[in-house]
Amino acid sequence: PDCTQKALFNRPLEDFDAGPDEAVGFADLADDLSDTIEMVLGEEGMGAPLTRHETGFEQTVQSDYAFIKERNYYEIFGISASTFSFNGLKEAYFEKTRQYSPEKFMELSGATLDIAQEVLSHYANAYGTLSSVVAKERYDEMLNAGITTGLDGKQDDRLQARVQFQSGSVFLEMREYQNAEKALHEAYTLEPDNAMHSALLGWAIYRNPANKTSRASQEKAKMLLGKSLQSGKSAEAFAFRGWILLEEGRDGLAEGEFQKALKLNPGERIARDGLNMLMERRESGKKGLFRRIFS
Length: 295
Known about the structure:
This protein has helices at residues 3-8, 26-40, 52-68, 73-76, 86-97, 102-105, 110-130, 133-144, 154-173, 177-190, 195-207, 215-231, 235-247, 251-264, 269-294. By secondary structure, it is mainly α. The radius of gyration is 27 Å and the shape is elongated. The protein folds into three domains: 58-131, Helix Hairpins (Orthogonal Bundle); 136-232, Tetratricopeptide repeat domain (Serine Threonine Protein Phosphatase 5, Tetratricopeptide repeat, Alpha Horseshoe); 240-295. α3 packs across α7, α11 (195-207) runs antiparallel to α12 and α14 packs antiparallel against α15.
């Protein structure tokens, strides 16, 4: 089964009012019969041609793809940043995605199916960004700086990665580690070779209280920090790794990591906090030793 496609439809079900039953006339029966004939007939050795209904959805997909290709997240939903409201976004999102039902997807194949999945994924990314206060703020900043792009493959992935990374960074500062882990995991998935994505995701996983009793999560955090330092040395990754070593009681190794971090960035706060804690621990140890000797 296509797990990606399942994920695209993982949204709340909507209630709607069924319209009154309509009488079926001759014209309706003729249309149905015409569709059936079009499905059956075809040139020898060729697949049956698409029905008018299927062709209509293919045209919708192509039209939607062309429309969103050069537009920002607000424009694809027909709204603006100045008049934004969550209810308006929600209504527009469901209006756009309602026509992309699983049944409609079954009518498609090949390149058109890929395009439809890309369109629906773009709608989901846009909705997810604009419906998150932090992610929306980061997106608005980039929009005002003129660096956002429309639907354009890797270019859109880079935009999403940047939005999620900046959102995750803010969540870390706010000590909302679960939200930070979620946003940074999205950034890491889009750009797994980015050293800073690996470093901050590893730190978010380590600091998330939900992961404290999970040995697998702790090991994953250390692996991500190691991967980050292999991709490119950063003060943050050294500082994060130093703090983990400090909490494990490996003071000598921790001090070495903090010194590496401060060499790259003398203002690295976590490294400075770690060194201060080390000094306090050593002073406390000296006082304890002094009391034991002369007591």
